[in-house]
């Protein structure tokens, strides 16, 4: 074959243009959002200038507690909202003493009805809230087929949607009006990598997290010109009670490591894995889908999750 023939030269030109176009459209923004932006620029938002107070839901443990600590470290006063008053008081004391900021607590169960939002409204009335972290969320105890988990515990279906979806929409509707008036504010919504990759056997959980992504994305478009930043954060595994991972590792970092990394993406990415190894994981799965086809990627994930389910069921059987 003559490599200098006009047809080969035209085809090479097209291939290089397509590659260049894809680089500019997809690869460079990914590299900026996940590597260059957070490491070179750091957060492009000074959250201290957003307002005096931060409100964090699900803040007595895991990722929520780590957000609360980081925001207090930056000097923000806190409203911590969780279920157990004893744990809330203990965390409030710990953070107040460590960082010398005022900490208030509100004990509500986000699986309950709309009445809890009246209690939150009264507790946050008049506060200059600059940051809202919608972190509270619940998941399956282990991966399970939809019919198994909803038939054995029908209440769970209501609870997971109330805690993972209603909490986000109601908290936004409570806190955002004052942000819109002062034309500044940050809302961080905790989604999950499960919301952006195939997640069979976690179908209700992953669908609630896909909702959080979509809601945040459209809300950001609506309120960008009002000075608000709405970020959807999509962690992979983080070593918390929810994941049941005790020892942090590179792919399942401690909540503190995860949150420091996620906060460095503020103002750089509005939809983000928040942590480079998790962004790479999403990339590998999306690449597998593109190269091998959606069905093959889904089957690989299904096989993997079925393995996790079998191990969990064996563990449960031993415990009984
Ligand atoms: N960990 C992960 O691997 C991972 C991965 C992806 C996404 N996420 C998301 O990140 C968020 C935080 O997860 P996490 O792992 O940090 O969870 P976690 O360790 O289980 O902590 C959950 C926090 O939420 C509170 N909470 C739970 N149910 C509540 C309810 N019904 N009402 C009020 N508060 C409640 C808990 O308070 P109490 O102590 O009072 O129960 C606790 O403070 C969730 O939205 C989760 O979906 C986590």
Give structural notes.
The chain has a single domain (40-275), classed as NAD(P)-binding Rossmann-like Domain (Rossmann fold). α2 (62-73) links the parallel β1 and β2. The mean pLDDT is 94. It has helices at residues 6-41, 62-73, 85-99, 115-124, 146-152, 154-182, 203-223, 255-263, 276-292, 294-319; strands at 53-57, 77-82, 103-107, 129-134, 185-190, 228-233, 271-272. With 320 residues, it is of the alpha/beta class. It is globular. A seven-stranded parallel β-sheet has the order 3-2-1-4-5-6-7, with helices on both faces. The structure holds NADP nicotinamide-adenine-dinucleotide phosphate (NAP). NADP nicotinamide-adenine-dinucleotide phosphate binds at residues 58-64, 82-84, 87, 109-111, 135-139, 163, 190, 192, 235, 237-238, 240-243. This is Very-long-chain 3-oxoacyl-CoA reductase.
Keywords:
320 residues, alpha/beta, Rossmann fold, seven-stranded parallel sheet, 11% strand, globular, binds NADP nicotinamide-adenine-dinucleotide phosphate, NADP, oxidoreductase, Very-long-chain 3-oxoacyl-CoA reductase
Task: Write the SSE topology.
Layout: H1 6-41, E1 53-57, H2 62-73, E2 77-82, H3 85-99, E3 103-107, H4 115-124, E4 129-134, H5 146-152, H6 154-182, E5 185-190, H7 203-223, E6 228-233, H8 255-263, E7 271-272, H9 276-292, H10 294-319
Parallel strand pairs: 1-2, 1-4, 2-3, 4-5, 5-6, 6-7
Helix pairs in contact: 2-3, 2-8, 4-6, 5-6, 6-7, 9-10
The structure holds NADP nicotinamide-adenine-dinucleotide phosphate (NAP).
Residues 58-64, 82-84, 87, 109-111, 135-139, 163, 190, 192, 235, 237-238, 240-243 line the site of NADP nicotinamide-adenine-dinucleotide phosphate (NAP).
């Amino acid at each position: 074959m003559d490599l200098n023939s006009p047809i080969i030269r035209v085809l090479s030109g097209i291939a290089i243009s397509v590659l260049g176009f894809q680089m500019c459209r997809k690869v460079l923004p990914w590299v900026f959002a996940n590597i260059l932006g957070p490491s070179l620029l750091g957060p492009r938002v000074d959250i201290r200038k957003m307002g005096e107070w931060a409100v964090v839901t699900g803040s007595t443990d895991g990722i929520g507690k780590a957000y609360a600590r980081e925001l207090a470290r930056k000097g923000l006063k806190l409203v911590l909202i969780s279920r157990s008053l004893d744990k809330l008081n203990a965390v409030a004391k710990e953070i107040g003493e460590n960082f010398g900021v005022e900490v208030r607590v509100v004990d509500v169960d986000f699986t309950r009805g709309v009445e809890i939002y009246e209690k939150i409204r009264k507790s946050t009335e008049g506060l200059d809230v600059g940051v809202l972290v919608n972190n509270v969320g619940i998941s399956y105890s282990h991966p399970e087929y939809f019919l198994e988990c909803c038939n054995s515990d029908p209440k769970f279906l209501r609870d997971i949607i109330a805690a993972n979806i209603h909490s986000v929409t109601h908290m936004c509707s409570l806190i955002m009006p004052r942000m819109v008036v002062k034309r500044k504010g940050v809302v961080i919504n905790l989604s999950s990598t499960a919301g952006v990759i195939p997640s069979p056997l976690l179908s209700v959980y992953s669908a609630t997290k896909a909702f959080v992504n979509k809601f945040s994305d459209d809300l950001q478009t609506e309120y960008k010109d009002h000075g608000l930043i709405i970020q959807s954060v999509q962690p992979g595994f983080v070593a918390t009670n929810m994941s049941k991972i005790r020892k942090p590792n590179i792919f399942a970092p401690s909540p503190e490591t995860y949150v420091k990394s996620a906060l460095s993406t503020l103002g750089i990415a509005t939809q983000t894995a928040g942590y480079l190894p998790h962004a790479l994981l999403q990339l590998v799965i999306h690449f597998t889908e593109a190269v091998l086809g959606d069905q093959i990627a889904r089957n690989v994930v299904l096989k993997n999750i079925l393995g996790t389910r079998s191990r969990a069921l064996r563990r449960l059987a031993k415990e009984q």
